[in-house]
Design goal:
It comes from Meiothermus hypogaeus. The protein is built from five helices and eleven strands; from the N terminus they run H-E-E-E-E-H-E-E-E-E-E-H-H-H-E-E.
Amino acid sequence: MHQRSHEEQRYLDSYNASAFDRPSVTVDVVILTLRDGHLEALLIKRKEHPFLNYWSLPGGFVQMQESLDEAAARVLRQKAGLEGVAGMEREGPLRHPIYLEQLYTFGHPERDPRTRVISVAYYALVEASHIREMGEEKALFRLRIPEGESAVEIFDSKFKKYSLAFDHAEILGVAIQRIRGKLGYTPIGFELLPERFTLRQLQTVHETILQKRLNKDSFRRKMLASGMLEPTGELERGLGRPAELYRFRREL
């Protein structure tokens, strides 16, 4: 730990923090899940101006005594009802922790009409069964990135299109592009699956994120050769031919 000299301490004691403008800092969290073959985001309806009654990403101002990661975990807990972030302190073991990663910093001077606000965006990948208590003020929306565009369009279950508050459509677009880029070299797609899954479900995750069809045989060969899959010895229950269930080797 840095040992301050008396001279340095005198300088800090007399330092005038108000001599410079200080922008506000927020965190916004893109919460993505996969449901019914669609990539969806959890959004919150704003209760106050600006953008009253618009849908937005869960977010909040960073408190003075918390880190950015702590602020993002707090937003997940308070705004989305999601506990147990991978890498964050928590009580007791968690079978399937929530994957949370810092995405990008958005700092256009006019991105927030209230004042100068810099937002540090995160994205969280959540298996669908963890997201509950939908209602008028919290809901899942389907996502689409138009060809040649970077911002995301959002639709409800009846395919009605909505506009997002602030620059949150852009943030969503950056998050999806990041996930698409990482899908080929990291096991990020497993975060959207239940603990036990079939190869068909895993391929659906990849195809939904990439928005293209993949060759079934080559995809399965690649996944089985990766060493990331562990057979459970169980079969999927349901109609048709039973499929083998696998789990992700998280210790790798």
